[in-house]
Specification:
The chain is α/β, with parallel strands linked by helices. Helix content is 42%, strand content 10%. It has a 4-stranded parallel β-sheet with strand order 7-5-9-10. The chain has a two-stranded antiparallel sheet with strand order 1-2. The chain has a two-stranded parallel sheet with strand order 3-4. A hairpin with a 2-residue loop joins strand 1 and strand 2. Helix 7 packs antiparallel against helix 8, helix 8 packs parallel to helix 14 and helix 14 runs antiparallel to helix 15.
Length: 370
Amino acid sequence: MDEVGGKPAVREKLMAMLRGKGSGRAELFTEKLTLDTLPVACVRWDGSVGLLQVGKIEHSMEGCACPMGMVARAFLNYLVTADLEKKQPTGRPYILAHPELKDLPAIGPGGPNSTPDAEKLVAVKPDVIFASYLVDRVKADDLQAKTNIPVVVLSYGQLATFDEELYQSLMLIGKVIGQESRAREVVDFIKRCQADLHERTKDVPEEKKPTVYVGALGMKGTHGIESTQGQYPPFIAVNARNVVDETGKKGSVMIDREKLLSWNPEIIFIDEGGYSMVRDDYRKNQQFYRSLTAVKKGNLYGQIPYNYYTTNIDTALADAYYAGKVIYPECFADVDPAKKADDIYTFLLGTPVYARMAQDFGGFKRLTLD
């Protein structure tokens, strides 16, 4: 409240509104705000996360806090965050490799369940619109009608990683933009990696494979160790024994803790996007975690989140190689996971970015909860 003149200024504007002066609204702010322009006292950064302070929390004994609610609502109405995701490249290797992409205009908010802004799309004058999640033909047709620009619908496939629909989508992009040769190179590269992962592990007897589990997977936000996946693509790629697969479910699954204790996997991977949440939970529930064999034996390993502003295939491939290295060290004796990750990033993006991904998340390593 101090940033808009304190309680006296807010009271004066409220009274002016009640007396019928002005626009009928208390205009506390006159121009749009961004996190970059806010006073240091209101926002601080923890890595790529902006922590915004809104509320009556600095001073006590100030009387009624009702005006603060109005100030907060007005503030949020004037706060612009659409470009924030562009300025924070964390977790998105394509932005790390090509920071110039951050200078392109935004055509809508990111995140789950978001839709592009038709007016902003028209303003940037594209020749074609590629849409990954407008799987409903009606929505795609509606966007095309609103913009009068051809809309091409793409798909990551059912599990959004190594899927024939993904390859078809890449080839379609290449055909539309006149880059069929490069599209074929990309598809062949991904398929070669997939074949290599399979060949290295296909002959390992089932009874000699350790049981594995991946937790803290992101799903429209950050989650704890209970968030996992059936048919987890990096595990599928290396023929791993994922304990969750016995449920018969595919994709995101939230399990009960008791089930994880029952499965008691020999190796646990943690999505490093949720690692801090798991550590916080460990401090509150140490008995639960210490009952897990993987924790007791130190078989806890990190995975870089590949579902970060949708699926990043390059990171998913790197995760698969690291999972293979941990689960079957003898089958991947010649593989350095960090170097392999950079080989993948370099082929697909043109430059190595593993070091920055590891800096942001932790990278491929053994984890501890203490």
